[in-house]
Amino acid sequence: MSLASLSNRSFSFPVLVADIGGTNARFALVYGPDSATDFCVSTATADHEDISSAIQQSLSFSGHSKPRTAIIAVAGPVTGDRIPLTNAKWVIEPRKLIKDLGLEDVVVVNDFEAQALVLPGLSGSDIQQVGSGAARPASTKFVLGPGTGLGAAAMINAVDTWIPVPGEGGHVEVGPVTADDFEVFQHIERVGGRLGAEQILSGTGLPRLARGVTKAMALERRFKTASEITIAAEQNDPVAVRTLEVFARALGRLAGDFALSLLARGGVYLTGGVTPRIAKYLTDGSFRTAFEAKAPHEALMRSIPTYIICHENPALEGLASYARAPDQFAVELDGRRWSRKDGLS
């Protein structure tokens, strides 16, 4: 792919955009390059045999026009004509989708690629700034998403083009810094002999972190889910509160590491299902203090802004932005775009 080739890209409207997770599938329609995103529906993947039936039922329930293109975000790599979901029974088969729905094109991308695609267009009530700093225009941005797991992606700007770069940043190492951290981290169980960030900074990781806090405080708690911890914290349970305090500091350090390594002067953005549930702990100062504590570069870190994404469906909006103006984004389509004109055999 060359940047010069991007000017030849376009999609036939209406474009269906889809954010497919292990639990829920979200769909929206984009009717043209100047139209707003028309949100259709969110539905449980378990309620449908496959993605084709979910789309057909969702669109018929909402009375929307038939799409000609589908751009789909999935959690995981796109490695062939059959794309299984990690935490659901669906297998995305683009050629079958083209047949079932009469589409002209299907594009499948990584879920955090979609999260990165939304970053250049976020403003106003879509974001809540945490701490100081101001985003530089046309500068690298980074998105970090504690949800079921911990997703991460960069959005690089080069030659007047935005380039989304997904990866496995959620699996980098994370460790203690403060005295409180050292007291807790020695009690956190390792996975494969290491402590990856996702193992504590995610919905599935929060109970592991809480067990470490429980041992450090010599108390008895048996939190099984992230929601149990956040609910207990609202009731001022000391173990739950301390767990979220440690979580926020560690997330701040990790966000700062990515900002520093990529010089993300366009800002670092937090998304994911856990983020809105712990906003209190992200805005009380500890997250930002940990983010900025990167000696000898504290002044640089203070200049880089951090945000909580407040948009209800950022991945869908990112895909919609790409559908409207694909020439503004360098999205690799080799092996990830299927067209009716190429044949369905």
Search tags:
345 residues, alpha/beta, Nucleotidyltransferase, domain 5, Hexokinase, domain 1, 2 domains, six-stranded mixed beta sheet, 11 helices, 31% helix, globular, ATP-binding, Glucokinase, glycolysis, cytoplasm, nucleotide-binding
Secondary structure class reads alpha/beta
Give the averaged pLDDT, no decimals.
92
As for the number of domains, it is 2
Total beta-strand segments? 14
The radius of gyration computed from the alpha-carbon positions, rounded to a whole number of angstroms, is 21 Å
User: Main beta sheet, described?
Assistant: 6 strands, mixed
Task: Give the C-level CATH assignment of the largest domain.
Answer: Alpha Beta
Low-pLDDT residue spans: none
Proper CATH architecture of the largest domain: 3-Layer(aba) Sandwich
Strand content: 15-25%
User: What characteristic shape results from the CA principal axes?
Assistant: globular
CATH topology of the largest domain: Hexokinase, domain 1
End-to-end separation in angstroms reads: 25 Å
Spatial strand order of the main sheet:
3-2-1-4-7-14
Could you outline the blueprint of secondary structure elements for this entry?
Blueprint: E1 15-20, E2 24-30, E3 37-44, H1 51-62, E4 69-74, E5 83-84, E6 91-92, H2 94-101, E7 105-110, H3 111-118, E8 127-130, E9 141-146, E10 150-158, E11 161-166, H4 179-185, H5 206-216, H6 226-234, H7 238-262, E12 268-270, H8 279-282, H9 286-292, H10 298-303, E13 306-309, H11 314-324, E14 337-339
Parallel strand pairs: 1-4, 4-7, 9-12, 12-13
Antiparallel strand pairs: 1-2, 2-3, 5-6, 7-14, 8-13, 9-10, 10-11
